[in-house]
From TrEMBL:
The keyword Ribosomal protein does not apply. Residues 4-239 form the ABC transporter domain. This is ABC transporter ATP-binding protein. It comes from Sedimenticola selenatireducens. Signal peptide: none annotated. Part of the ABC transporter complex HmuTUV involved in hemin import. Responsible for energy coupling to the transport system.
Amino acid sequence: MNRLQGSQLVVSLGGAAILKGVDFKLNAGEMLGLVGPNGAGKTTLLRVLAGLQKPDGGNLLWNAGDYFSLTARERARRLSYLAQSGTAHWPMSVERLVALGRLPHLSDWQKPGETDEALIEQVMEETDLSDFNTRQFNTLSGGERSRVLLARALVAEPEVLLADEPVAALDLAHQIEVMSLLQRYCERGGSAVVVLHDLRLAAHYCHRIMLLVDGKTLAEGSPEAVLTEQHMRTAFGVQVSPEVGAIRDTLKLPWVRA
Ligand SMILES: Nc1ncnc2c1ncn2[C@@H]1O[C@H](COP(=O)(O)OP(=O)(O)OP(=O)(O)O)[C@@H](O)[C@H]1O
């Protein structure tokens, strides 16, 4: 059974068709890479899956039941959405901001208990944030902020994590760390949809890739099946440079942790 399944999803914004009948599925333990040119509709699809954008057509299922019958609290417990350029709207320490991720699991006025605290500490370590506990979020660099927001999403222990370009502001080492973290999250049974512009990261880490072009799925399947020279030409209008030769060589991850 698919954890999330959409069929013929349609979204119009400002009078323009943005998603034009997209089928979607996500299994437990799966990392799905959502790739495609700027303006293809990746963020719009993610917002539909997060329940932030009601589709104008099609339907969406959560574990085979109607997605839209989940209450907002149920959705917050089971699904985390990491926006493209997330922010915090008032000054707050990193530790408090990450702890907010536990809120959907606590009743009104309940404080985080020992188990919550242990989880928060573990995720802070995994996201390389232990030294930032008391720092104010608004004093952090862009890459540090991205890691804090990912940590907040992970402490919620969601069944599905929707991450819009989670590595966009990160240096090489932190890109690898964040992708490995998402990989471990999926190995523990989580499901992730990750919007990526770096096709090498997508090829290396994702089980399956969906290539969206102009509001439609151009290709979907294994990285090898989707990231072909023909699809790159159609989607992005590029071809492999003659100096490189084969497309598989462009998709090798050139760095590992030293
Ligand atoms: N509120 C809106 N009104 C009109 N058009 C919109 C609105 N929101 C988004 N769009 C348009 O919808 C299209 C898809 O946007 P979306 O953000 O989903 O693309 P994307 O694939 O995530 O792009 P990128 O890679 O640049 O982040 C774009 O052309 C965008 O300009």
